[in-house]
Amino acid sequence: MRKVISRGSVRGGLLSVAVAGSLLVGATGCGGGGNEDGAQDDYKVVAGTQLCGGNAMSAAASKALKVITGSTRFEASAEEYTVKQAAADLVDDYPLSTETNDVCRIYTPRDTPDFDLRITWNLEDGPPTSDSAPEFTELKMGELAVTATDKAYVFFACQSDKLGSSPDVHIVIGVQHWAMHTEPEGDIKALKDAYATVTHSVSLAMAKELGCENNGGLPAKPVLDPA
């Protein structure tokens, strides 16, 4: 079962994600199924490398999650929230998708400070051409990567037999802290690097799952030096 949020502009004035109404969609996110009392029947706590299907988060991305959330343990992802499922949804939707779609959501465990990360995919008509908003640092990954203190996006072009004869399918993977924006606390560069690392890891996993030629031009490890 796929969860969808309203699409924001991921090109003009990078980047503005539409929040209105989306918090009501898939409110349980990546968590397991619930009972009538709202408690999850199969609740588990796992390491970062086990999230979103188990192949989305590299060891480096798992460490980056600690920088972002302050935690090394997270609510287990529900079975349908995987990179494999997201890739299958993308193939099914291409070329008609005009929405931003969930890959997974990451939550800190019960009885700890709340933290909610939303990981998404969507399709664009072409590579990004607009200037990035001032909050973003541009990185050399794929067609473009941008990172801020509460979000990051990676754009890459995919050529794959799974996506037919199109020469390039333009894909955007996003990772965003799903909360009202506040001034960042702590090391700003470390936060930006952490968001970029997590987003790169999910993007690379998606490119591999889709069978993109040359992994969509994504490097094996995140590039964190500004473009």
Describe the structure.
The structure is a single chain. With 227 residues, the chain is α+β, with helices and mostly antiparallel strands. It is built from 3 helices and 9 strands. The chain has helices spanning 59-69, 83-93, 188-210; strands at 4-5, 45-47, 73-75, 100-107, 116-124, 137-139, 144-147, 151-158, 169-177. The strands form 2 sheets. Strands 1-4-5-9-8-7-6 form a 7-stranded antiparallel sheet, with helices on one face. A two-stranded antiparallel sheet has the order 2-3. Strand 4 and strand 5 form a beta hairpin. Helix 2 (83-93) crosses helix 3. The N and C termini lie far apart (37 Å). Residues 1-39 have low confidence and may be disordered.
Give Rg in angstroms.
16 Å
Q: Strand portion, in percent?
A: 15-25%
Task: Quote the distance from N terminus to C terminus.
Answer: 37 Å
Mean pLDDT: 84
**Total count of strands:** 9
Q: What's the short version?
A:
The chain is of the alpha+beta class.
Q: Strands, helices and their partners?
A:
Elements (H helix, E strand, L loop, with lengths): L3 E2 L39 E3 L11 H11 L3 E3 L7 H11 L6 E8 L8 E9 L12 E3 L4 E4 L3 E8 L10 E9 L10 H23 L17
Antiparallel strand pairs: 1-4, 2-3, 4-5, 5-9, 6-7, 7-8, 8-9
Helix pairs in contact: 1-3, 2-3
Kindly list the characteristics that best describe this protein.
single chain, 227 residues, alpha+beta, 3 helices, disordered N terminus
